[in-house]
């Protein structure tokens, strides 16, 4: 546990020193959301009805941006081999990377989702369900993204393979998250999002650990 926390602190320190990925993801999210009113028109009724879907799609795409460098930088400079030799298991490395990814990408997106949804004229009664769904949803996306980034590590075109691998896996999160914010009784959808998180929490680090071992070999 001590090594895992040390790795999370290392990732956060590196991100603070080179914060371009976090800032780029957040700006991408805001800019993408801002483009929709230009494309579908400024009608408050239309924007309010589509706001949950717009926010979720933008959050999903923004979460993908830093994933190709999640393990890529450590793999290229040899740091990944040092981490594997440090006594921390591949599963632990994957768990620490997932935690750092959510803190650096998922959490800022969650904080920005409220103001952007209000900008899109979302119905005030729908906003709590949207944010409640984004909490487990963004964590699940970080877990899926970590597993995907590890599985394509060492391939010739990881930046191309990663979205093709992750977008189908993330579709249920997108469906249930949007549905939770579009209904008057969001509890079933929120429970399904929580169930997806409960399934991804043990399975994704295992898959990521297998990918890291394969890349190191």
Structural class: mainly alpha
Shape: elongated
Number of contiguous helices: 9
Task: Give me the Rg, rounded.
Answer: 18 Å
Query: What about the largest sheet?
Result: none
Helix content: over 70%
Summed over residues and divided by their number, the pLDDT gives a mean of 88
**Total domain units:** 1
Number of strands: 0
Q: Please give the alpha-carbon distance between the first and last residues.
A: 25 Å
Task: State which percent range the strand residues make up.
Answer: under 5%
H-E order:
HHHHHHHHH
Low-confidence stretches: none
Structural summary, described in words:
- The protein has 217 residues and is mainly α.
- The chain has one domain.
- It contains 9 helices and no strands.
- The protein has helices spanning 2-17, 20-40, 44-64, 72-77, 79-85, 90-119, 127-151, 158-181, 187-216.
- It is elongated.
- The two termini are 25 Å apart.
Topology:
Layout: H1 2-17, H2 20-40, H3 44-64, H4 72-77, H5 79-85, H6 90-119, H7 127-151, H8 158-181, H9 187-216
Helix pairs in contact: 1-6, 2-3, 2-6, 3-6, 3-7, 3-8, 6-7, 6-9, 7-8, 7-9, 8-9
Keywords:
elongated, 217 residues, mainly alpha
């Amino acid at each position: 546990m001590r090594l895992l926390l040390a790795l999370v602190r290392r990732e956060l320190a590196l991100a603070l020193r080179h914060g371009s990925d976090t800032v780029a993801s957040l700006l991408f999210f805001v800019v993408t959301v801002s483009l929709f009113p230009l494309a579908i028109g400024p009608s408050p009724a239309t924007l309010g009805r589509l706001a949950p879907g717009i926010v979720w799609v933008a959050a999903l795409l923004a979460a993908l941006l830093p994933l190709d460098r999640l393990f890529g930088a450590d793999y290229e400079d040899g740091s990944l081999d040092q981490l594997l030799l440090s006594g921390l298991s591949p599963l632990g490395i994957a768990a620490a990377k997932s935690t750092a990814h959510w803190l650096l990408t998922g959490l800022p997106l969650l904080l920005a989702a409220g103001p952007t949804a209000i900008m899109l004229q979302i119905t005030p009664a729908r906003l709590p369900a949207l944010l409640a769904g984004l909490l487990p949803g963004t964590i699940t996306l970080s877990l899926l993204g970590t597993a995907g980034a590890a599985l394509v590590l060492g391939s010739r075109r990881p930046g191309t393979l990663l979205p093709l691998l992750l977008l189908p896996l993330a579709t249920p999160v997108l469906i249930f998250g949007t549905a939770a914010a579009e209904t008057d009784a969001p509890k079933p959808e929120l429970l399904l999002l929580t169930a997806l998180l409960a399934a991804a929490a043990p399975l994704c680090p295992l898959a990521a650990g297998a990918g890291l071992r394969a890349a190191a070999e």
